[in-house]
Amino acid sequence: MKPIVFSALPDKFEETYSTVLEALVLYAQTNNVILNPTSILIDFEQAAFNAFKKLFPNANILFCHFHFAKNIMKRLKKLPLYNIGLNDELKKNNTKREIANILSLPLLPPNKITAAFFDTVEVLESINRNFKPFLNYVEKTYIINAKSTSKKISYHFIHANTTILFENNITLAIFIKTVIHFILSSVIEHKCSFFNVDFNLQKSTIPDLIIFLSPYIDILRVNCTKCYLSNSYIQIAEIAHLIVRNRQNKWSLAIDLNVYSKNQQFRLFDCVKRGENNFLLQSINFPFYNHSTIPYDEVLEQSLITYNINISNLHILYLDNNQFKIKPVNSNNLHPEGTIDLKILNTINKHYNSLFILKTNLISFPKSNDLRLLQGKTINYINVSEEEIQKFTSFVQKLITSDTNHQGYIQSCVRGDYNNQLLFFNIGGNYRFCPKKGSHHQHNSVAILVDTKKLTYTIRCKDSQCNNISFIWNTIE
Predict the structure, then answer these.
(1) Fewest CB within a 10 Å sphere: which of 108, 220, 254, 287?
(2) Residues 58 and 165 grouped into a single domain
(3) Is 145 helix (H, G, I), strand (E, B) or coil?
(4) Is 18 left (phi over 0), alpha (psi -120 to 50) or beta?
(5) In whole angstroms, how far apart are CA 447 and each of 69, 164, 381, 453, 463?
(6) In sequence order, what are the beta bridge partners of 166?
(7) Residues 24 and 46 in one domain
């Protein structure tokens, strides 16, 4: 393996690494080379890992064992060995063996690393308690950062008594974010002797609402126990508990909206994160853990809240013309009103319409816990039958229907805000071609961008895991 690029950097910051990598990718593109590594070998540096992971999310990033061992021994030698009585201890065979065990941790299967490390911790601390600062360094730097432990754990509540299913994860994401925005807005709008403030809600995001409410959280929790949402039994004080302090001691939403993405089904129990082995387990604190008579597989199936073909007796909540609607799954149950409060659904629909003016297929949700309000934004929708763009429409139509197994259709066409010569054709149906993959995805959507001046086009894959940021422009023939 020969090095082909050398880079002398002023520091080891993530931003510096990102700048170099982005420049390298750009240079490669100008020379018709697409950098898409399947594996990357780097030193044990968190900043470097973050930079590479951001630019190449699908690559398998490996760490150099030599530098790992070097870092461990360097940290060990930084200890004031003579002052704390470790110099003689390090010469003993049992101590050397445990240090060697730490150096061997990366060679173990991922699911055995944590247990092996804490076995070593127990032995070294029994030899001399002064090893603790060194062991804390190893744990904080490599163990907790690498895999989940008791000190790094998240709890997932799985509702296993579903009464309604969502059509798909996109609908679920929109619904959840609309409800969150609605209840936070309702808290701000409510007036009582303890809370009476004015705030313009027209263009506020969820983070905006959290920032505004943060000085009043304790007041709302303590004093608004008799205040309720309009036409609801939900206390304002209860809603205030949805805003909590994160690890950086900043107020944030207790609900992680990142899990509601169009490419992610919920990770249930023994399902794992992509490329990792830290699977979910049933909590031993679950009160019915040892008494459940429901089969394991049935628990998993019943906990899904998006459409599941095996559950045919539940209603489906779907989006139609920016309205949440309910339809029965089978013809034997045509009246969803019996199990669903349509007044609440109408309230949510009213709030949803006040937030969004775009068609559903054009709404995108960022990775942060952020619900962007698009009210008042002018969208340059185009009639695809206009004479001046008819040739582009015909070209796109021919492109997306050329494969009999992947037939698509034009959902809408939008002119670029900053570059008016660009046309964005949003494609529906089964045409899901990804230039990066070289074939069709199963569940993504695509947009075809046409440069009307240069007479070129490119296909943008909207699959979040694919993360296709390199556009390949082709000539329109």
Answers:
(1) 287
(2) no
(3) helix
(4) alpha
(5) 48, 32, 14, 18, 11
(6) 306, 317
(7) yes
Q: Under DSSP, is residue 183 helix (H, G, I), strand (E, B) or coil?
A: helix
Q: Are residues 238 and 359 in the same domain?
A: yes
Which DSSP string corresponds to 85-105?
T-TTGGGSHHHHHHHHHHHTG
Which 8-state DSSP code applies to residue 209? Answer: H
Per residue in 337-393, pLDDT (tens digit) is 445 667 888 888 888 877 754 333 323 333 333 333 323 333 344 555 566 677 788
Q: Do 42 and 73 share a domain, yes or no? A: no
Q: Are strands 315-319 and 164-166 parallel, antiparallel or unpaired?
A: parallel
Task: Give 36-52 pLDDT, tens digit per residue.
Answer: 888 888 887 777 888 88
> What is the domain count for the chain?
4
* Integer CA distances (angstroms), 21 to 36, 49, 152, 178, in order: 12, 12, 30, 37
**Cα–Cα distance for residue pair 420/435, rounded to 1 Å:** 24
Say which residue the tokens 């659904």 belong to: 345
Cβ–Cβ under 8 Å, residues 235 and 227: yes
| Tokens read off for 399 | 């492109």
Strands 433-434 and 422-429, bridge-based pairing: unpaired
At 424 the three-state DSSP class reads strand
As a residue count, the chain comes to 477
Which residue range(s) make up the domain with 188?
154-266+303-377
Helix (H) or strand (E) holding 212: helix 206-213
Bridge partners for 471 per DSSP: none
Is residue 279 in some structural domain? no
Q: Give the span between the Cα atoms of 403 and 342, in whole angstroms.
A: 43
CA 326 to each of CA 142, 340, 450: distance values in angstroms, whole numbers, following the listed order: 49, 9, 37
| CB-side neighbour CA atoms (13 Å) of 173 | 26
Same domain for 359 and 322: yes
CA angle 157/161/163 to nearest 5° reads: 120
How much is the pTM? Answer: 0.44
